[in-house]
Amino acid sequence: MATRRALLSVSDKTGLVDLARGLAAEGVQLISTGGTAKALRDAGLEVTDVSEVTGHPEIMGGRVKTLHPKVHGGILARKDHAGDADDMAANGIEAIDMVVVNLYPFEEAAAKDGLDRAEVVEEIDIGGPAMVRASAKNHDRVAIVTDPSQYEAVLAEVAGGGWVSDATRRALAGAAFRTTAAYDTAIAAWMAGEGDGPEDFPDRFTVGFRKELECSYGENPHQRGAYYRQVGAPQHLLGGVAVRHGKPLSYNNLLDVDAARGLAAEFADPAVVIIKHNNPCGVSLGEDLASAYLRAKACDPVSAFGGVYAVNRTVDLALAEHLSEMFVEVLWAPGYDDEAFEVLTRKPNVRLLDTGGELVRPGNATEPVYRRVLGGLLVQDADDVAESRDTMSVVTARAPSEQEWADLVFAWKVAKHVKSNAIVFAKDGATVGIGAGQMSRVDSVRIATSKAADYDLPIQGSAMASDAFFPFPDAPVQAIEGGATAIAHPGGSIRDDEVIEAVDALGAAMVTTGHRHFRH
């Protein structure tokens, strides 16, 4: 049998020498390029330069080195194909049986500060993807190895005079095509971001993901689950986040962590957010985290048990002592004082996430939001609009007081993160009643006010926010009779005049925001 040949050309040299040494020990001839060839020679291995194979030197600063018939012909030649064999003989082409390639680190370059556009462009690999695709296409004969994690299994099959099996070559080819697809997706995303603003919805919407962790199961134990980060995204949920203590993160943990993170990002003052089943069950601002926690928990202490918590300050001892008395699934924070960490880690299962000093982790506002539906994808812009007291309009005879204004703005920020139909009552910078996910807005008001009554919360004199307009006066009237004195909603109903008249008759204040915040 003819000597097998392997072409190795990698940016990530993890495990390279061990792989090459194992191949060489089985009599495989090593062909390589540039820095890869140097690394192998430095390890004492015999290597043939690609330029010796092609009879042509690398040119254009290394942009052109493997784009040659003697490389691609050697890769693409089909086994037991007379025409290909004749072409190889006529052109002096020898078969290449294995290609080991990982691509220029484009994603890292695109994310790096200080690189200009031309430097990033140089990290767009051309020869590497071409060899990967050629090898994957011809996987009937060629083994394409694109990741150091594959080296051990490949060597195990080659050991003892064997070769990479048909099944493994097919699996490697599938992984190779996923690699090039994700690589091109990252480049396309970067190119789109190079314009003056977000790209309009293109005819072809491509998104790539890379697995970060496998979950023990999905939403339910009979479902599998995993977390993937988006290729090319400027940040992702767990990017730069250390899990400093506790059990592995579950699928549901990650959903709730994202909800908690997004709401905590709304506030500059010390804030505590408690999430249960992807909805806030308590949110509060405070002079410090401990005082904010006590008021956030008071909003719904039953639901707060086993919740996911997010704070926007370093966790101190006072907060840690309070949390140690509670069952907490996950705590997301920008850091932990040593004493606080010692107290919290007395419980073995609580998951402590540390964002490394980052105050908050806002969303990627310029990136689209998408959700899977059967056989397709719904895509929309991020719900990111600049809103404040200055963007709201008073529509009643009475304007809100200063305290009512503060609570309206706070309640409105929280309502944005509550499942529709969303109703939020707030007083003095803390939620005192939340109604979420109901089919009727009236039902959401009823739930919020009844919870406030159950926990003896100060709903009298509160502000209430609704994520969408009121189609009838019933919900705002019910809210005012329950204790609200000021209301915020988007406006825009054909019955806005009736709603305003009803609120005026009860002496309350109402403002419209001009934007709704449905969360389905």
Structure write-up:
The structure is a single chain. The chain is α/β, with parallel strands linked by helices and 520 residues long. The protein has three domains: 189 residues, Methylglyoxal synthase-like domain (Rossmann fold, 3-Layer(aba) Sandwich), CATH 3.40.50; 115 residues, Cytidine Deaminase, domain 2 (3-Layer(aba) Sandwich); 121 residues, 3-Layer(aba) Sandwich (Cytidine Deaminase, domain 2), CATH 3.40.140.20. The strands form five sheets. A six-stranded mixed β-sheet has the order 8-13-12-11-9-10, sandwiched between helices. The protein has a six-stranded mixed β-sheet with strand order 16-21-20-19-17-18, with helices on both faces. A hairpin with a 2-residue loop joins β17 and β18. The longest helix has 28 residues.
Task: Detail the topology: elements first, then pairings.
Elements: E1 5-10, H1 16-25, E2 29-32, H2 34-42, E3 48-49, H3 50-54, H4 69-76, H5 82-91, E4 98-102, H6 106-111, H7 117-121, H8 127-137, E5 143-145, H9 151-158, H10 166-193, E6 209-215, E7 225-230, E8 242-245, H11 251-264, E9 271-276, E10 279-285, H12 289-299, H13 301-304, E11 307-311, H14 317-323, E12 328-333, H15 338-344, E13 351-354, E14 369-373, E15 376-380, E16 393-394, H16 402-415, E17 423-427, E18 430-435, H17 441-454, E19 462-466, H18 474-482, E20 484-489, H19 496-505, E21 509-512
Parallel strand pairs: 1-2, 1-4, 2-3, 4-5, 11-12, 12-13, 19-20, 20-21
Antiparallel strand pairs: 6-7, 8-13, 9-10, 9-11, 14-15, 16-21, 17-18, 17-19
